[in-house]
Structures are given as C-alpha cells and as structure tokens.
Specification:
With 447 residues, this protein is mainly beta. It folds into three domains: 36-215, Immunoglobulin-like, CATH 2.60.40.290; 220-410, Immunoglobulin-like (Sandwich); 415-447. Helices cover 10% and strands 34% of the residues. The chain has helices at residues 2-13, 213-216, 417-430, 434-446; strands at 36-46, 49-58, 70-75, 81-86, 88-90, 112-115, 146-154, 166-172, 177-179, 183-185, 189-192, 197-200, 203-211, 222-228, 254-255, 270-271, 279-288, 292-301, 308-309, 312-316, 324-326, 329-334, 343-348, 355-356, 365-374, 391-394, 397-398. The strands form seven sheets. Strands 1, 2, 4, 7, 9, 10 and 13 form a seven-stranded antiparallel β-sheet that branches. The chain starts with a helix and ends with a helix. The model is unreliable at 1-26 and 414-447 (pLDDT under 50). Bound molecules: 2-acetamido-2-deoxy-beta-D-glucopyranose (7 copies). One 2-acetamido-2-deoxy-beta-D-glucopyranose binds next to strand 8.
Length: 447
C-alpha cells in the first residue's frame, strides 16, 4: 500500500500551503480581500473643527468580531478634543480642566472608543450603532457587518480643517489586528431621494486593519478528525494539535472524565484529549450513491466554560464545485479566485444550532449536519484521499489537519492482497469508476 501512500502525498504536495499564514503576516488565499476598514467621513465643518461619521466595516468573509466587541483607538495629531458622540462613546474623558463653559465628551490625546449596547437611549444612537461592538462576517450577514458612529471634533488648529488621526489601533475581541496609516481617499458617495440623487461627504479618510493569528499569538483552537464507511479506522486529530497534555495528572490544564469539579471558575478549562483542542471538526464519509455522495460534519466543543454562538465552519473541498445541500446548517459557497478547490461556509440555523454548547458532565457540546453533494463523474473518487477536506477553518482560524499518510485507506483486509492489488490495477489501468468497486468492497468488509 506504499504506492497509495505516496500517491496521497504527491496529491497533497500540490495544494497551496495555507498553514504558512500562521507564521507570517501573509494574507489568507481563501479570503484575499479580508480586512476591517475604518472610514472617517467628514460630514460638515464647524467653527472649531468638524463632524465625522466613523464606520468600521468587516470585509472578512468568515471572520467575525464577537463579544466583548471592537475597541477603536487613535492618537490625535494636534490638541483635538471630542465635543460629543452618538452611537458609541470614549471609555475615558481625560483631563478637560482647560474647558470652562462646555465640557467635551473626551479630552484624551489618545481616545479609545467602544460601541453602545442595544438598549442605548434614542438620543445617544446613530445609524448602524449599538450592537455591543459585534460585527458579523461579510458572507454570513453583510447588513450587520459594520458599526457606525458620529463624532464632533473640536479644538483643531486655527485655520485648519483638522488632521488625520494617527496610530489607529483596533482590538476586536482580543489582539491580532494591525491597522495601516489613515490615508486620504475619494469621498464616500451615498444616494438620497430613493436612489435618484447621489451626494458625497466633504472628505474621507481610510485605514485598513488586517488580522494575523501570529500577532494574536494564538495556539490553534481546533483540529480535524476523519472517518469513512469503508474503513473502520478513525483518523483522530494529530496529538498535541493545540498543545500537549501535561504529564502531571493533578495539574489543571484540562479535566478528565470523572473528576468534574462542582464550581467551574476558569472558563479556559477543557476536556482532556490527546489533541487538547477546544474544538474538533469531524468529517465522515457516510454513503456513496449513483449520482451523489453523503458526508456528516460534526463540530464538538471541549470547553467547560465557553459556548460558541454565531460560529462558522469553512470547508475547502473540490466537491463543493457541484451543487450540495446541508440539512441542518445554513450554508453558502464562497467565490474564490486562483484557489483550485471550492470553499463552502457553514453556520447555525436560527433558533436551532447557532450556539455550540459547552461541555458538561454529560459530555461535549456539539452540532452536526449531513451534507449531500452531487458527484462530478470526472473528478469524484474515493482514492488518494480526494474525499477528505483540504482545509477547515473554525471562526476564521485554521484547524490542524491529520497528515495524509494517516487518512483512512481503501480497504484491503477483507480480501486477500492479491485480489485487492488486482482490483487496484484494474481500476487505475482501465479507469474504472472506483466507487462501484468500493461498494462491493464495503459490502464484503461488512459481512
Ligand atoms: C477583491 O476586491 C476586488 C476589488 O474590490 C474585486 O475586484 C475582487 O473580485 C475581490 N475578490 C474577491 C475574491 O472577493
Ligand atoms: C490638566 O490640564 C491642565 C491644563 O492643560 C493642566 O494645567 C493640569 O496640570 C492637568 N492636570 C493633570 C492632572 O494632568
Ligand atoms: C447620551 O446623550 C446625553 C445627552 O446628549 C449625554 O449627556 C450622555 O453623555 C450620552 N451618553 C453616552 C453614553 O454617550
Ligand atoms: C487665519 O486666517 C485669517 C484669515 O485668513 C488670518 O487673518 C489669521 O491671521 C490666520 N491665523 C493664523 C494663526 O494663521
Ligand atoms: C505612532 O507609533 C509610532 C510607532 O509605534 C511611534 O513612533 C509614534 O511616536 C507614534 N505617534 C504618536 C503620535 O503616538
Ligand atoms: C440563514 O442565514 C441567513 C443569513 O444570515 C439568514 O437570513 C437566514 O435566516 C438563515 N436561515 C436559517 C434557517 O437560519
Ligand atoms: C492493507 O494492506 C497493507 C499492507 O499489507 C496493510 O499494512 C494495511 O494495514 C492494510 N489496510 C487495511 C485497512 O487493512
């Protein structure tokens, strides 16, 4: 079977080496336009400054900003102050003692802004605000992929219309984002009168912020395991995918079954496994039909203290070039340019499985779906690991895949080797449709 192993290896060597993104600041080939842009639109000038609308737009297809939401900071170029805000607020007022009559909202030379909650009173709101800093990913819900607030800036230098903010920082549910300098851009155009007239803002400044797991210094958060109907072997996650289990059984990096404490304070505690990942994505090839094939996708949560709400899972697999149906998840195909395999994005259905519950005494939390994919007879095969995903991401984080030489192999144990070698020869030399042979093989192994 060494020849099969080397075929699998050769096949995977051709794949783009996506994991490299973990170690450098390179972009994600599956989401080349992925970024969060921060847009400062000047709406009008005032006697001592200007009024701007600031928009934080998430362009990432499958990376969202979850609780506790975004935090946007910058450094004023001069001695600007924020007179007032709507739709967000500065977390510190700073030293406003030099203002006698009217006290600004914030005098900090380096203000940090956060979103209001959904229960904010009407006088503090603005369009596109008040979602607690949560941004949906672009592919899942573009209408909730941005936040917007209004800011009245004063005390700008005399005879000056204001200077661009410097050193923008974006913390979006933790570190990992790096923002470029704020640059001049063509003024934002928007439509009025039901789309019949276009108006534009006075001035637009833009900064682009990109995420890097390396900057976030995140260890992997998930791993992938595989199984098939034709081989009883389950390929589990690579051990130590997300860290190694400490040798001391009393050290509390994870909790073994049976020693469940009554009060859980540490939200980072996970169920003990060889992979030590908080999440595992399992891909099971269930059935092969004449014109379709069926897969079961299961996401398990090994955390004892953390639910995953509004999760998403991305699967890169050439099979998604054909029509497919996910029965229990919402899904979409993400357009790609220059990536050979198609990518499908899955997320929970409202009121059904948008939340992956944390593990408890009874076991791990999980969500699962069956996926029916149409076969493309020219490419479909069970050989060479074709049926397994090329890459899986959970919430935008790349999951550790098992090595191709550990993938479940086509069966040969139930028949003697000469027969199986003969069958392989037959399949490869005469280009027989492999799945038909397999159904027979599978039948034998079940007997
Ligand atoms: C990326 O953005 C460019 C310019 O906005 C657009 O032409 C291109 O189609 C986008 N690519 C993807 C994969 O969305
Ligand atoms: C506050 O600002 C005033 C005027 O700029 C300055 O005199 C004072 O020292 C500052 N106070 C503190 C605590 O920094
Ligand atoms: C809400 O608006 C009122 C009146 O404009 C203002 O005094 C208050 O500081 C605002 N609250 C926040 C959180 O911005
Ligand atoms: C600002 O402009 C006005 C009129 O152009 C001029 O009289 C004044 O001296 C300028 N002030 C400064 C500080 O440049
Ligand atoms: C902006 O950041 C750079 C590099 O960290 C630093 O050298 C510079 O002093 C900062 N500028 C301001 C105004 O804080
Ligand atoms: C699927 O996702 C879309 C976009 O988020 C949403 O509008 C729709 O309600 C979802 N469908 C279900 C069944 O949750
Ligand atoms: C298939 O045959 C090879 C070589 O004889 C053996 O190492 C391997 O375990 C067999 N595979 C299965 C699934 O039995």
């Amino acid at each position: 079977m060494n020849t099969t192993t080397s075929r699998v290896w050769r096949y995977f060597q051709l794949l783009p080496f996506i994991m490299i993104c973990r170690f450098s600041d390179c972009y994600d080939p599956l989401d080349p336009n992925g970024s969060i842009t921060v847009i400062f639109d000047t709406l009008k000038y005032t006697h001592d400054g200007y009024v701007a609308r600031v928009t934080i737009q998430n362009n990432y297809q499958y990376r969202h900003v979850e609780e506790p939401g975004w935090k946007l900071g910058w450094t004023w170029a001069k001695n600007e102050v924020i007179w007032s805000m709507a739709g967000a607020f500065a977390i510190q007022q700073g030293n406003c003692s030099s203002f006698n009559y009217q006290v600004p909202h914030s005098c900090k030379p380096d203000p940090v802004i956060v979103d209001l909650m959904s229960d904010a009173p009407a006088q503090n709101r603005s369009d596109g605000c008040c979602r607690g800093g949560i941004l949906s990913s672009w592919a899942i819900n573009p209408s909730a992929s941005y936040s917007s607030f209004k800011i009245t800036v004063g005390n700008v230098e005399e005879n000056c219309t204001g200077s661009k903010p410097l050193n923008l920082t974006l913390a979006a549910s933790g570190p990992g984002y790096t923002c470029g300098p704020v640059m001049d851009s063509s003024p934002t155009v928007y439509s009025v009168i039901g789309g019949r007239r276009e108006e534009q803002v006075l001035r637009t400044w833009i900064s682009t912020c990109t995420y890097s797991s390396y900057v976030a210094s995140k260890t992997p958060i998930c791993c992938v395991s595989l199984s098939t109907f034709y081989n009883p072997t389950i390929t589990s996650c690579p051990s130590c995918s997300c860290g190694c289990r400490v040798a001391d059984p009393l050290a509390t990096s994870c909790i073994s079954e049976g020693v469940f404490p009554s009060n859980l304070l540490d939200i980072d505690l996970i169920h003990c496994t060889d992979h030590m990942c908080p999440l595992r994505v399992h891909w099971h090839i269930m059935n092969i039909y004449v014109s379709h094939w069926r897969v079961k996708l299961t996401v398990s949560n090994f955390n004892y203290g953390k639910d995953y709400s509004d999760w998403n899972v991305l699967v890169q697999h050439p099979g998604f070039g054909q029509p497919s149906t996910a029965f229990s998840f919402n899904s979409t195909i993400i357009p790609t340019v220059g990536v050979p395999e198609d990518i499908a994005l899955f997320w929970g259905k409202a009121f059904h499985n948008t939340n992956i519950l944390k593990a408890d005494k009874g076991g791990v939390g999980s969500v699962t779906t069956e996926i029916l994919l149409q076969k493309d007879s020219s490419s479909f095969t069970l050989g060479n690991g074709w049926g397994f995903p090329r890459a899986i991401y959970f919430n935008g984080e790349n999951c550790r895949m098992p090595l191709p030489d550990t993938f479940p192999m086509l069966p040969n144990s139930s028949l003697n080797r000469r027969t199986s070698n003969f069958l392989f020869l037959l399949m490869f030399s005469f280009y027989l449709s492999i799945q038909d042979v397999l159904c027979v093989l599978n039948h034998f192994s079940l007997l």
